[in-house]
Structure formats: structure tokens, C-alpha cells
Amino acid sequence: MHPAFSVIFLTTLIGAAQGLFLALFSTQVYSEFELLPGIGDTNYYGIGAAISLILLIGGLVSSFFHLGHPERAWRSATCWRTSWLSREVIALPTMMLAVFVYGLIHLFGLDSIAFTHGEITLSTSLFVGIFGVVTTFALFICTAMIYACIKFLQEWASPLTVINYFLFGTASGFTLATALASYLGLQEHTLFLGGWAIVLTILVFITRTASLYRNSRIKHKSTVQSAIGIRHNKIQQKAQGAMGGSFNTREYFHGKTAMFLKSVKFIFMILVFPVPVLLLSASLNNGNTEVLIAAFVIQYIGLLAERWFFFAQANHPQNIYYQTV
Amino acid sequence: MTQLALIIDLNVCVGCSACVTSCKEWNTSGPAGFMSDENPYQKDPTGTFFNRVQTYEVGEFPKTETVHFPKSCLHCEEPPCVPVCPTGASYKRKLDGIVLVDYDKCIGCKYCSWACPYGAREIDEHQKVMKKCTLCVDRIYDENLPEAERKPACVLACPTNARLFGDVHDADSEVSEMIRDQGGYQLMPEWGTQPSNHYLPRRKNKITIHKDELVRVDNPLNKEQKEHHKPVDGSVLDDNSFI
After folding, report:
1. A6, A86, A142, B74 — which has fewest CB within 10 A?
2. Can you tell me the distance from the alpha carbon of A201 to that of A167, in angstroms, rounded to the nearest whole number?
């Protein structure tokens, strides 16, 4: 497939935003149950939610560049019964609303006690957070299923696609949350979040390697024989039905050399996994915020390359009809 | 239920592209707006087409065969492009099974083109909406046209009658009979899309003649051991006859 930058930015930005929100919520749950100290005077949740919301808006804006008719985008919420894309269109603003309310409560100190039972007290923002988490998970599933549900794009049609989208998003979001906690001087939170960021990055290294391994050995079901229905081992295409190319020759081919593809894979395998893990583990204890921010930025750039590769690697069966591209 | 479809006979298609040009001619002048082109008369011309003819060479020289292969939307019975559409712009008509795009609802997200294994959908680069074969839906029901002309433009244009149009759900229709009798098949059956358009395979008209068939075994003259005509060596009376 031809990687579209609008979609690359959409998926990576909202992935990081979703991961960041999950990190905020995890921190809050741990704090409420006194497994972590409170955040003191810092506005960690509020600022975190604001960053998450900005990333979500960035993703949404970038997605509009993918559309031929952005002014009709509202229509895309109508077919949620059948279309994962439509479900994503509903899940994304819902999550934005949840993050907005969550951030608002924390930024302006509107939190109140919603529930008490004996020694347990639960705040309102926690319940808003739970709603946010549900929408975050829904959004992860919708985004990934857009790709995983196309069964003949065999590189994508796998549960690994959903797992990877979830883990890439959470890994980058937790790395960002680590940098934020460190910036605000929350030492214990930095350790907690950074630890999870490392664990998630290692997990997604395993699952992405698994999907790369799967894709390198994939057996495509469609052949030129089944595509044109002629049973002969030697079939050569002589004409494609267009002189100067067509939508079919532009949309479904990345147009780069195998070497370029290999280099992109190498780049993201370095930038997404080992570099952030090294930077995180080196700076968690000494509170070196710049290095932690660098860890996020490097991982995010790596994720852009990863997403580019994700699209470029998918081999659409229609390409069989355009063999001489 | 009706399912209109095209039957394409690869045995007689000569790859003249008359179907391509007539399709473009009819549909670019239709009520749905033109089908835009980029550099139509310059280098690297490209544009929107509903139908294209490709050419394949099957076999190895000298035993090769050229197959011309027209490709357009197959109007699948289980169209994978329809459920993925987020706006409902892509739909399959219950009335006659034609898969259509509502150009006023399409947002141009291209997702349906990803979900079509045949690459039958093309985005119009100027109108920014997804386009595809409509089976000339604006023509086949037009009562202003004589009945014989209420067929897709490509079918009417084909000089070798390689394209047939009809209802593949009606067992007695001409197209259903052709599919049954001539071994009509579907493209990429492995994805369960059940394309309505069928292709008829190349057919060889071969006859095997054995040696003994060249001599009439039951010739009655043979039975009587009678030699019917044997030229005589040397001269005969007629050679010297004056008459």
C-alpha cells in the first residue's frame, strides 16, 4: 500500500494520546489506593490530559487531510453498525470529550468525592477516568480493526495488528507520561511510569517481531492464476490498461526499493525499542528530564517509520493485476 | 431476486478497447458528472476509468497465447467494499444487485478501494470521490431508449460480442445458460466475495483424428474384393482413335 502521511500521523498521535491517558489514569488509581504518593501541588493530571487532548486534536486534524471531502466528514459517523472506520469516528470524539472533562476537573480543582465506603473514598474524576479508559480501549480496537478486518490484506489481517496498535500507543504514551512526571519533579511517579514504559516497549518489541516474522513467511492466497482464472504456471502481463498509470498503480504501491523498505525497518527497530529503553533506564533515577523527553521524541519518530513500514509492507491482491509497476 | 451482471467471454475478446472508450464516453457525459483526466493529450496521461482491458501472455514461446482481460467492478454478491464505507455512500441495490456509490455522500476516504481485492474502484482526482462501474444504471432502465439499447455501453460497443449482460439469478437467462454451458467462472473465488460478473474461459476447438479413421473401414467395395478402377499400362484403343 502507499503510505499516507495523514494516516501515519493520525494513528501515531492518537496512539500516544491514548497511552498518555492510560498512564494518567493508572497513576491516579495507584494514588487513590495509596500505592503511590499523591501528586502534591503539581497539576500532573491536568497538564497530562491537556497534552493528550492536543495530541488527539492533532490526530483528528491530520486525518482530515486524508479525505477528499472533509466538509462531509460528519457523515462518516452513520455506518457504525458495519464499518470500523465509522466506529473510530465515534470513539475518537468520545474519548476527546472524556479527556477534556477529566482535564477540566483536575486543572480547575473541581474534583469531589463521589463514593465513600468505610475507609475507601473515590473521587469523581476517577469515574470520569474509567469512562475515558473505556473509550480509549474502544478507540484502540477501532483503529486497529480498520486494518485488521480487511481479510485479503493478509499482512494486516491478524490479531497481532490490534495488539501492536495497543502496545505501541501505550508504550509511547507511558514514555511521554514519564517525561512529564519527571518535568514536574514527581520522582516516584517517574520511576513507576518509566518502569511500565520499559515493560510495554519490550512487550511490543516481542509482538512486533512476531508480526514481522509472520509477514516474512506469509503465503498469499491470491495468485495470478486465481486473479484471471487461467490455470497456467507461466503468465506474464503485457498491458495494464493504462499508459500513464492509474489510481491502481499509485494507491497500492509504495514505489520504493526493497533496500529502502529494509532501511526503514532497521531504523524503526532501533528508534522504537532499544534507544528509548536505554534512555529511560539511564535517566529514571537521576531525574534527567531532557533525556526522558528525548526518549519520547525518538520513540515517536521511530513510530512514524514503523507506521510507514506497516502500510508499505501490506501487499494488496489487486497488485496482481498490475505486475509491471 | 435479480442480480444483473456482465459475462465476459475471454475466448472472443480481441482487446480492442471499444468497451473502454464507449464506457468512458457514456459515463463522462452522464448525469453523475464527468470522469476527469490528467494530461489526456500529453505525456503520462491518466484518468478515471470504470473499465480497463489488460493483456496477458500465457505460456512460453513458441507455445504462447495472448489473453485480453477486461476488468471492471464485478458487482459482488458479498461486496467487501460496502460494509466498510463509513458514510453509507457505497451500497448494493436490493432491486438488481448493482453496487453503486452515492457521489454526494462519499467523503473520499479511499477505504472502500482498500477493501476491494480486485482494484475495481478508482478515486476521481478532481471530484475527490470514489468511482466505479455502475453497469450503466442510467441507461439500462431508460425507457426513452429502444429496448435493444437498454444495455451497458460496453456491451453494445463490443464488436465480437464478448460482453453479455443479464440476470445471473435467473436460471433461464442467456447469461446463466452461458455460465453453465461454457464453464463460466469467478475471479479470486478464495475470498468469498462471490462476484456476479463471470468470465468464460478460452476454448479450443480441437478434433482428434486417428489413422484408421482416414480410411473407410466399412467400404463395401473392400468386402467384395472388387477393384473398381485400375489404370491400364501401355496404350489403349482410344489412343489411336480418330473419334
Report:
1. A6
2. 8
**Does the pLDDT value for residue A196 go beyond 90?**
yes
Interface contact flag, B87 A86, Cβ < 8 Å: yes
Domains of chain B: 4-200 (3.30.70.20), 211-240 (no CATH)
* Interface with B, mutate which of A11, A247, A311, A322 (most B CBs under 10 A): A247
In this structure, the dihedral spanned by the alpha carbons of residues B69, B145, B175 and B26, taken in order and rounded to 10 degrees, is 20
Name the grid cell of A2. 502507499
Which fold would CATH assign to domain A5-67+75-217+248-321? Formate dehydrogenase/DMSO reductase fold (1.20.1630)
Q: How far apart are CA A9 and CA A16, in angstroms?
A: 11
- Length of chain A measured in residues: 325
Domain ranges for chain A: 5-67+75-217+248-321
Which residues in chain A are closer than 8 Å to B66, comparing Cβ atoms?
238
Interface check for A1 against chain B (CB to CB < 8 A): the answer is yes
Amino acid, res. B103:
Y
For A1-58, how does the pLDDT look when each residue is reduced to its tens digit (9 = 90+)? Answer: 999 999 999 999 999 999 999 999 999 999 988 888 888 778 999 999 999 999 999 9
B204-209 contacts: CB < 8 A, separation 24 or more? Answer: none
Q: pLDDT tens digit string along B67-113?
A: 999 999 999 999 999 999 999 999 999 999 999 999 999 999 999 99
Cell of B124: 476521481
How far is the C-alpha of A317 from the C-alpha of A29, rounded, in Å? 47
Q: Residue A80 CA to chain centroid, in angstroms? A: 21
Cβ-in-10-Å burial (0-12, 13-18, 19+) of B151 comes to buried
Instruction: Give the separation between CA A138 and CA A156, rounded to whole angstroms.
Output: 19
- pLDDT of A321 reads 95
The C-alpha cell that represents B243 in the structure block:
473419334
Separation of CA B104 from chain center: 31
CB distance A234–B59 less than 8 Å? Answer: yes
Q: How far is B7 from chain A (nearest CA, A)?
A: 14
Cβ-defined contact of A222 to B117 (cutoff 8 Å): yes
Give the list of residues 6+ apart from residue A178 with CB closer than 8 angstroms, or none.
A23, A190, A193, A194, A197, A280, A284, A292, A295, A296
Q: How confident is the model at residue B225 (pLDDT cuts 50, 70, 90)?
A: low
Q: Which residue has the cell 465515534?
A: A90
User: What is the spatial distance between Cα B200 and Cα B184, in angstroms, rounded to a whole number?
Assistant: 4
Contacts of B39 in chain A (CB under 8 A): 244
